[in-house]
Amino acid sequence: MIGFIASITEKKKHIDNYLQQSFNSLNTSILKESSDYSTNSESKRLRAILILSVIESSGLDWKKYIDLASSIEYLQTATLIHDDLPCMDNSDIRRGKASNHKKFNESVSVLTGDFLFSYTFYNILRESKKLNLSDSIIVKINTILFNALNRIINGQTEEFHNKSNNISPDKIIEITKDKTASFIEACLKTGGVISSLDASQLKLLSEFGINFGIAFQITDDIIDIIGLKEKEGKNEGTDLKNHICTLPGKIGIDKSLVILKEKISSALDTLNQLNIKKDILKGLLIFATESRLKNYNINI
Asked: Which of 111, 118, 184, 249 would be 213's cystine partner, CB 3.0–4.6 Å?
C-alpha cells in the first residue's frame, strides 16, 4: 500500500505542476482567473491518474504522457463548474472552497465551463501532436472522449428529468452509467488506446471502468448522506436537498453497500482478465471506494 500511495502521489504532483501553467497565455483576465481558480483547486486528479496508470500497467513510460493525460482534468473541472450552478445542484462549496459561481458569478461560471470543454479537446490534440501520435490514435482518443461527454450530458439530463420521481434502483444505475461511469471508462480506454491494446483488451477495460464508475458513484452518494464537508470538500446532503434520486436514498445505505460490494467484485474479476499489470488499477479502485468509506468507519 505504501508503494501504491507513493505512485499516485508522484503522478498527482506531475499533473498539478502541469495544470498550474495552463492559463498563462490567456488574454482575458477574468476567464484566466476563473479557469485557474477551479482547475487548480485541491483535487484527487483521479481521471488523469487512471490514464497514466493504464499506460504504466501496459509497460510504457507514463511520464512521457503526463501533459496529455492532465488535459482530461479540464473536462472534469468543466463538468463540476456546471454541476454547481444554481440551475443544477446549486452547490456553494466545491473542493473545499467556494464554488465557481459563488466566487465569481453565474455568467462567468457558465462561460468558464464552456471554455474548459473546448480547451480540453484543443489541448489533447496539441499534446498528441507533440508526442507524434498517429492520426488514427488521435481520432480514437477524441471519439472516446466525445462519446463520454455526450453520455455525461445524457445522464445529467435524465437525472434532472427524474427529480422527485419514483424511479427504480435499476434506472438509477442506468443513469449512473452515463453520468459518472462513462467518464471513468473513457479515461481507462484512452490509456489503453495510447498503449496500443487490442479490441478485446479495450472491451475489458470498458467493463472494468463501468463497474468502477458505478462503485465510485455509490460511494459518493453514501458519503453525501453521512459525510462531512471538512473531509470531502463539499456540502453534505446536496442530493437530498435537490430531490436527486440516488441508490442509498432509494434503498438505504445497507442495501447500497451490498450492490457496491458486487460492483467492486465484478470490476476485480474483469481486471484479472486483462493482460497488463493489475496492482495499480486495483489499488485505485479500492482507494476510490472502500478506503474513502473507511474514513467514516464503514467497512464492506
From this structure: 184
Q: Which three cell numbers stand for residue 287?
A: 482507494
The set of cell numbers assigned to 92 is 456553494
Cell of 236: 453534505
CA-to-CA distance for 80 and 95, rounded, in angstroms?
10
Cross-strand bridge partners of residue 93: 98
Phi then psi for 94, rounded to 5 degrees? Answer: -150, 130
Q: What are 50-99's pLDDT values in tens digits?
A: 999 999 999 999 999 999 999 999 999 999 999 999 999 899 999 889 99
C-alpha cell at 89: 445542484
Domain ranges of the chain: 2-294
Residue stretches of the chain with pLDDT short of 70: 1-2, 164-165, 228-243
Q: Which three cell numbers stand for residue 110?
A: 457558465
Tell me which residue has cell 453525501. 224
What does the chain come to in residues? 300
Helix (H, G, I), strand (E, B) or coil at 97: strand
CATH of domain 2-294: 1.10.600.10
pLDDT for the residue 226? 86
From its phi and psi, is residue 91 left (phi > 0), alpha (psi between -120 and 50) or beta?
beta
